[in-house]
Amino acid sequence: MTQQSDSLTAAILQFVDEVNRGDAPAALAHFTDDVVIVMDLPPYRLEGAGAGLQWLQMMGGNAAKLGTTAVALHPAAPRRVEADETTGYCILPGKLTMDGPAAHLTAEGELTMAARFVGGGWKFCAMTWAGGAPA
Q1: How far is Cα of residue 125 from the mean position of the Cα atoms in its chain?
Q2: CA 135, CA 130: separation in Å to the nearest integer?
Q3: 10 Å Cβ neighbour count for 19?
Q4: What is the 3-state secondary structure (H, E, C) of the chain?
Q5: pTM summary value
């Protein structure tokens, strides 16, 4: 891997950790104002400056609906990382766990990120999650 791909991977893992810890302000700071998020919850596509917050709220609402209180992504080694001085792309497989008093669910999938190197750091301009339904 190159230094740029290593730094992109580190930024994505930091983002995942911030989401897992519930640190919304830190996690949301990673998104660009024109981010596009594609996920497995309706309306399936979110876009723009408020998309990250809307995504987190939808994830929380879905967790509550399923009877879970803790959602975490446990990433594996990246399947693919491409990065240069200005843009980056990463496919990160992982296991999503959703735990709570009413349910213990898991789903395997892949988090895919597209990024831009802005102001000395990576900002995510696209994010997708693809995988099976939690079971």
Answers
A1: 11
A2: 15
A3: 21
A4: CCHHHHHHHHHHHHHHHHHHHCCHHHHHCCEEEEEEEECCCCCCEEECCCHHHHHHHHHHHHHHHCCCCEEEEEECCCCEEEECCCEEEEEEEEEEEEECCCCEEEEEEEEEEEEEEECCEEEEEEEEEEECCCC
A5: 0.95
Residue 92 CA to residue 113 CA, distance in Å, equals 8
- Peptide bond just before 93 cis, omega within 30 deg: no
> pLDDT tens-digit profile of 19-62?
999 999 999 999 999 999 999 999 999 999 999 999 999 999 99
